[in-house]
Amino acid sequence: MSDIGSGDEGISSQKYHGQGMDAGGNNFDSGQQPQEQELATKMLQIQSKRFYLDVKQNRRGRFIKVAEIGADGRRSQIFLAMSTAAEFRDHLSSFSDYYSSLGPPNPENVPDDGKLKSEMMLKDNRRYYLDLKENSRGRFLRVSQTITRGGPRSQIALPAQGMIEFRDALTDLLDDFGTDDGGYKGELPEGRHLRVDNKNFYFDIGQNNRGIYMKVSEVKSNFRTAITVPEKCWSRFRDIMAEYCDKMGRAQLSPPTHQGGSGSGARAGSAQPAREMDTFGGNGASRI
């Protein structure tokens, strides 16, 4: 059975080359490298691929980076919170049991999409799709990490024959460093969506080791921007919005006043302030 490619062409095969990333796979784009410490690492050689399992720690906490380097030097990687890594470890056992029960490959019984078994994991604003697949080159487990609301997608492909070895290596790391993410233990609210004219606004609740936050994203055709609001200032953020809504409501109910009689002079009252503050119209596309 030959090695299964996973994509992400053109990425350097040098370990740890490139931008620093947090546990969610987000780039630190401030121009400075984060204070990131590697606590442990394991390397697995599975067929013609190498897999690195690195336990790392930065200001946001601990996480596991899984990097796949193919025979041609292509590199792919995903990031797992410690609790997500534990859930993934458990799925590997069930996928391996299912794989063992399949028997020899039979091209006539393969589904059209090649999927033999699938699972999904959810962590904050990240989704992980686990698909045991089969193609002409063999069987493999594809693990895809996505960020909600159109974020980047990354994936690795693990040859099915190496799932147990991978699971055991992951178990060793989790035994040493634990599976507790800390922070809020309850269920976070679901995301919300608001459409205004030709814009879409998404409200997503997430959590990291610094606390709970709301990510507000504005999407318009190929344009996207976002702000992050810490949970500790939601009430103040709400009060400011409510104050503006109240002021605009009173201004729109006030009768318009005219300067200079019937001429074409500027109007006072609600019209000019409304144009300045309207962030939902066609102007001010970079503001929320």
Structure, explained:
- With 288 residues, the chain is an alpha+beta fold.
- The protein has helices at 82-101, 163-177, 234-253, 271-277; strands at 37-46, 49-58, 61-69, 75-81, 115-123, 126-135, 138-147, 153-159, 192-196, 199-208, 211-220, 223-230, 257-258, 267-268.
- The strands form 4 sheets. Strands 1-2-3-4 form a 4-stranded antiparallel beta sheet. It has a 4-stranded antiparallel beta sheet with strand order 5-6-7-8, covered by helices on one side. Strands 9-10-11-12 form a 4-stranded antiparallel beta sheet, with no helix packed on it.
- Helix 1 runs antiparallel to helix 2 (163-177).
- The N and C termini lie far apart (52 Å).
- Residues 1-13 have a biased composition (Low complexity).
- Belongs to the PUR DNA-binding protein family.
- Residues 1-35, 251-288 are annotated as: Disordered.
Identify the notable features of this structure and list them briefly.
single chain; 288 residues; alpha+beta; four-stranded antiparallel β-sheet; 4 helices; 38% strand; disordered C terminus
